[in-house]
Amino acid sequence: MFKLSSTTLLLSASLAAIGSAYAVDVDKLAIQDELAVTKSTGEYPTPPGWDKLPKGELGEKVLRGYQYFVDTQTLAPEFNGNGLNCVNCHTDAGKKENAAPLWAAYMSYPAFRKKNNKINDFQERIQGCFMFSMNGTPPLNDSDTLVDLSAYAYWLAQGTLTGDDFDANDMAVPSDAELLKGGKRDDFPFMKAYLDAGGSKEPELPGRGYPKLDKPEQAPDIARGKKVFEQECAVCHGADGQGQQVNEHYVFPPLWGPESFNWGAGMHRVNTAAEFIKQNMPLGQPGKLTDQQAWDVAMYVDTRERPQDPRSKGDVAQTRKDFHGAMSYYGTEVDGKILGSESSPNHPRKPQ
């Protein structure tokens, strides 16, 4: 299930103390990523290391974006309304393939999203994460937080596309407005080394998103999923799915309840959660669960109560009709209760 490593926690604390981001010893940042995960070799592109951090203002933005990404709950309480960090859904600090990697996401926007029925640029995609996955309040357009997160994604994308020939000194330095757009645009400044090596201006991005998972032989089952959760997930996420804290800081994220993602988040859909779980959980053991187990445990997790869908105007049935499809159990009866009828509030600790 969604894990946050103790390594990330301890080092995120040190990052929080960084006043001048670029002054940090970048050699030490390499160990601040999410707990080491199993990586495929050769099949997927490799993101850049910290030794290839750009200098100057862009490098500072990249570092701040990284910090927001791995310790969102501490550094962005005005935007984050629960106990999650970006890295919980995008493991290995947004670098791991098949875990919705940030480098692939950046090159996939602007793009149309059915969720809000319009073309979204990259900053709008991030805003959606804050509203739903973080159960919070999105940063305003063009805010420094969105610029920094976009800069981190831009750097990962350029480095991942270019590979061994990546030299951050040769990377274009976009304006803030350009950073916020994303990389799927005609005027994106692909690096010369990438193009000289035959790189396409419409890259394929292997490892993007979460790979689709075939439907299971048996319909997903809550009781079977509960057993999988108890055997494979509870050791980190707690028997009650509420995560684990150290010094009031979540080190293992809650999977349901008031501190988890809300009913509008993509992860509340059983298929999305099953795809994530199959490829990434238990952490460091991708593929351990059978397809059936992944579907079952996703069914169990996604039929627990959680914060309200922020698009709701108070009528659960209408909210289901307007926004929820077949893979969502919001508004249906489970264990004698209508899911969504006892949801916790959105962004309950929003600073005033």
Q: Which terms would index this structure?
A:
Cytochrome Bc1 Complex, Chain D, domain 2; metal ion binding; disordered N terminus; 352 residues; heme; Cyt_c-like_dom; mainly alpha; 2 domains; metal-binding; single chain
How would you portray this structure in words?
The chain is mainly alpha-helical and 352 residues long. It has two domains: 26-197, Cytochrome Bc1 Complex, Chain D, domain 2 (Orthogonal Bundle); 222-339, Cytochrome Bc1 Complex, Chain D, domain 2, CATH 1.10.760.10. Helices cover 36% and strands 5% of the residues. It has helices at 6-16, 26-29, 56-70, 72-75, 91-94, 102-106, 122-131, 144-162, 176-179, 192-196, 222-237, 270-280, 291-301, 316-323; strands spanning 111-113, 118-120, 244-246, 249-252, 333-334, 337-338. A two-stranded antiparallel sheet has the order 1-2. A two-stranded antiparallel sheet has the order 3-4. Helix 3 (56-70) packs across helix 8 (144-162), helix 7 (122-131) packs across helix 8 (144-162) and helix 12 (270-280) crosses helix 13 (291-301). The chain is globular, with a radius of gyration of 20 Å.
